[in-house]
Amino acid sequence: MLAAAREGDSAKVWAWLDAPDAVGPRDINDRATTASGTTLLMAATMRIDSVAKLDFIQELVRRGADYNFRDDDALGIYELACTAVEFGYSRADVFRDFTLQWLNTPDVDRPPKTVASIILTMAKVPSRPLAEAFFALVRAGVPT
């Protein structure tokens, strides 16, 4: 299911989530027993390459996916999203919009290395949308 989430296959993910298994409904925040304890939301943020994918991420959050989860390597949602941009899996303009969405979500932890993550990403993938994401983080008071 993580591959479907990473690819933005919303029909497959919703069908899986909405179909109860043998013991009851599935939890949107279940961690994979492989892939470093990744959740569906984490997998989705590993490739933010379209507006449709951003809409999919918003729907995951609306359904209860938790932005505050960290994988077994202590990486959070935002760090994973930065890494995806750095390696060319995500579009900078959609990442900027994801940043604004993430900043406007109540009760989201703002880890201290968030700004450092985007600075490292910008060093490898300079672009106006990434600069706009960076300044949105600074304006929001994310620690630098």
Order of helices and strands: HHHHHHHH
The overall pLDDT, averaged over residues, is 85
Q: Uncertain runs with pLDDT below 50, 5 residues or more?
A: none
Main CATH class: Mainly Alpha
Tertiary shape = globular
Distance between the termini: 35 Å
Q: How would a crystallographer describe the biggest sheet?
A: none
Which superfamily, in CATH terms, is the homologous superfamily?
A: Ankyrin repeat-containing domain
Summing up helix and strand content along with how strands pair, one would put the structural category as: mainly alpha
Strand residues, percent: under 5%
Please outline what is shown here.
The radius of gyration is 15 Å and the shape is globular. The longest helix has 12 residues, at 51-62.
Describe this structure in words.
This protein has 144 residues and is mainly alpha-helical. The protein has a single domain, classed as Alpha Horseshoe (Serine Threonine Protein Phosphatase 5, Tetratricopeptide repeat). The protein has helices at 2-7, 10-18, 40-45, 51-62, 77-86, 92-103, 114-124, 128-139. It is globular, with a radius of gyration of 15 Å. 33% of the residues are buried. The mean pLDDT is 85.
